[in-house]
Amino acid sequence: MSSTPDRRYYVTTAIAYPNGEPHIGHAYEYIGADAMARFKRLDGYNTYFLTGTDEHGQKMQQTAEKLGITVAELAARNSAQFKRIDDEVLGISYDRFIQTTDPDHHVTAQELWRRMEANGDIYLDRYAGWYSVRDERFFTEDETEVAEDGTRTAVETGTEVTWTEEESYFFRLSAYQDKLLELYRTNPEFAAPRYRFNEVIRFVESGLEDLSISRTSFDWGIDVPESSTGMTPSAHHVMYVWVDALSNYLTGSGFPNESYTQRWPADLHVIGKDISRFHCVFWPAFLMSAGIELPRRVIIHGFLNNRGEKMSKSLGNVVGPEEWVNQYGLDTVRYFLLREFSFGADGSYSHEAVVGRHNADLANNLGNLAQRSLSMVAKNCNTAVPTPGELTEADQGLLDAVEALLEHSRAAYEIQDFHGALEHTWSVLAKANAYFADQQPWVLRKTDTARMETVLWVTLETVRRIALLVQPVLPTAAGRLLDLLGIDADGDAGATNASGAGARSFAAWNDSLVPGAALPKPEPVFPRYE
Ligand code: ME8
């Protein structure tokens, strides 16, 4: 399908610290961004999807020291793990897997820095304050508290902070308070959901301090470029890991090559709730300073909890994506994570909840309807698309509800309401199941075969459109359903994985099944989970 430049879409995930293995929380973010990317590709957008790993900083350095390996080794080893999970386990259709150790990323980050300096927003001073290595973040004294055992921790995140005193470059964040508030006022959709965006706004309203943006006490990072304004540091500085990390989104666009504006600005940054401040405050301020267009939107998803409990290594309840996918199948995991709770909210999972969704929604509502109608067609219509006669009000009512689904999903995906899109789609599926039960085609088989064919045709049309529409969430199963309906692949949901190629674009939405066309032998797509 041809795509025009204004129909382009650039979506990113946060880049994870590869200081450990990916967990289901990471997978959740990738699956959300992946569904978004697939939807846009199938809808005819020239889509670019960036994900990857954030490899520098003190946390990586300390983890490597504890493990007794070099930090480069740690980064390479775990980054490969993240990439493998994306490729082989989750079927993530990214276009580039960026690593902040990539050479072109160093060029981008340094150029961003130079432009901020040229704009007069970077100065050299001394930093003295509290730093949390776990959070890779500075805290003011009143954002910390001292525990009974004498350790000082950050109130917000509960992580240990250490006193840090060193020469540092600063970014004049304080100069951007009004500009940021103006951005939020004029772009109410800049970040979502609203309650998380409001937290960001309150933080900015309460006043911004300049931000320390370099470190001298370790060197695992991107070198600060030589000053163009005559500043002379007394030590070697590497960039604060968040300046380095955030600029990855620009690297993915090709910046500073002139052609970067063909991709930039990013349409959507998908991130978790713990890093909203970095994306909604620091990042737009850096870009404003450098004179670069701002991203259009930040969607802030919630955290996944295990039966309502925070996932943590010490509780031993961290779930690996591979474990889940092996147990339930990829499509079920994807469906569960996007259907069970809304993307902005925190969500809780349990074995019972995943199995419940699989059996009720996938095996019963979708799988059974497809299987029952297709096997009737095989037995009674010579395994070919049935021929519809005149449509009754009931037929037309169902077809109309199904037809409206594409516009509904488009609007829902525009605000990353995957939950709402699926909920509504399944409510129409429920209508289709009720229609099938009411019309009783198995009775019509004996009394009125012409009418039976109409009912079966209407049902298959319903399955066809719903399968088309849910490909971004259920790439494998929806693809198989479309195979069973004899529909040729014409689209590409993503460059990197097998289930992406061979997709059907939404351009086929207004086609319809051709009476008499031969169908393959039906087979069940969603066996029940026992
Ligand atoms: O923050 N549930 O990396 P990270 C849902 N390197 N999402 C979760 C989660 C959970 N239980 N735990 C983490 C970083 N996440 C930085 C990002 S971007 C320029 C740099 C999400 O490995 C988290 O919110 O700690 C973030 O969006 C992503 O996983 C990576 O987290």
TrEMBL record:
Its main location: cytoplasm. The keyword Repeat does not apply. This is Methionine--tRNA ligase. It comes from the Bacteria. Gene3D superfamilies: 2.170.220.10, HUPs, Isoleucyl-tRNA Synthetase, Domain 1. Monomer. The keyword Electron transport does not apply. Is required not only for elongation of protein synthesis but also for the initiation of all mRNA translation through initiator tRNA(fMet) aminoacylation. PANTHER family: METHIONINE--TRNA LIGASE, MITOCHONDRIAL (PTHR43326:SF1), METHIONYL-TRNA SYNTHETASE (PTHR43326). It is found in: Cytoplasm. GO terms for molecular function: methionine-tRNA ligase activity. A motif ('HIGH' region) lies at residues 16-26. It comes from Citricoccus muralis. Belongs to the class-I aminoacyl-tRNA synthetase family. MetG type 2B subfamily. Residues 385-489 form the Methionyl-tRNA synthetase anticodon-binding domain. Residues 9-373 form the Methionyl/Leucyl tRNA synthetase domain. Its EC number is 6.1.1.10. A motif ('KMSKS' region) lies at residues 310-314. Pfam families: Anticodon_3, tRNA-synt_1g. Keywords: Aminoacyl-tRNA synthetase, ATP-binding, Cytoplasm, Ligase, Nucleotide-binding, Protein biosynthesis.
